Amino acid sequence: MSERASGRVDEQPDKQPDEQPGGQAGGQPGEHPDEQPGGRPDEQPSARSDGQADAQAGGRPHGQSGGEAGGRPGEKRPGKPGGGKPGARPGGRSAVERRAAHAVQRVTTLTFGRYQSAVVRIGFAGTWLLFLLRELPHRRELYGPDSPWGWDLAEQLIARNGAFTALMWSDSAVWFEVVYGLAVLSSVLLLLGWRTRTMSVFFMFGVLSLQNRSIFMGDGGDNVIHLMAIYLVLTRCGQVWSLDARRAARAARAAARTGAATVVPDRVGPVLWVLSGAFLLVGTVWDGSLPELWLVFLFWGMWIGQGLWWAANRYASDGETRSLLDIVANLVHNAALVVIMAEVCLVYATAGWYKIQGSRWQDGTALYYPLHLDYFSPWPVLSDLLASNALMVLVLTYGTVIVQVAFPFTLFNRRVKNVLLVAMMLEHAGIAVLLGLPFFSLAMIAADAVFLPTNFLRWLGAAVSRLRERCFPQPRPSGRSAPPGQRSDSPDQPRTLVG
Where is the composition biased (Gly residues) (predicted)? Predict the structure, then answer.
């Protein structure tokens, strides 16, 4: 009981509960009221007062006064009850210090938002993949040698802004096809969660290479994908709903059957790591392809980090090195998740406040005009039907501004936040249909998903699993089943090297 009062928890870096941003260990079974990013933190698991906690932590029987514990029986000391300042243990730390230590330990030992980061990974990888497949017949006109934004113009612009794109390494059509194919392949593998750490780097490589080659070909959705591709590299987005998680679960079941927690030999990881290093070396020395020093440190730093992670898993899976790497990875992941949430709030806040300054948004007619543009009217009959209803145009125009301006402030109230989250997703679904911007809408919905409640995501994952089992029934593996209450995607299972 003293450990709980002092703010310590029993989680180890490799054994953590299914907790998300704002979540707490020790909650009621089946309830995760504060596992949502941006959700309002609830009370600590212990419902006792500070005085009761301090009394039990100090070794006094429950109900005994501070004077009785510190002096002769029946003698009461003058002063405040408890013999010290409120909220502080005699000779110990104050309540603020204990809470701060508890928060630091949670941030360093827990991976917050595992389900949210997984759905963001799936959403953006799927959106970029669909875009690449849709533009496959026009890829050369958009980003390749046949683009109106020619090689000379792109070279001049990149020399001025210092943007990274591998398409400027060579003007060969073959090289363009290689980069485009790599972008498609990395999107598929990141969507499936295969070697997530490595694929997130290749995903970022493909996104930056194509978008920075022809910056005038994109829209708002491309900008969001551009940013999220960088942030995903810093997250541990493959701990659930991925092939990596399934591989780790199989290794855990095998270890449970044999009774030995051994690291599964990984042959694919080292090969992939060596190939990535060779590719990076060629990009670094080939005609100064990485002129920016920060890019060199970024790519090589990630490559070295993955090598250290492999070595720690292979030779020191239970040592201090592995624990240190886990702490660093948790810190980076949690910080990146906060940045993603802040980015989404910034997008909506700036969009809403800029709209307020426009006269068409002020008089409630802004939605009327794009509905009459051919470029934004894939369904002319539907657009005319909506534009003919003045009340509906007014409600949708004002509603858009209100939702975008108010959303960042609703993070302080979970229920209101969830309502506005549904409203924003429906708004983007309407934009996809009415204005013909499906990829922009998909990108924004994927960004909004970082605020989805964890209970809903778990329910969604279970529903998809049941549907998959009905459509593709598989025989259950023989052997001892997992203990009751142990989830197949729990993070206390051994991970397999790179990825």
Answer: 60-72, 80-90
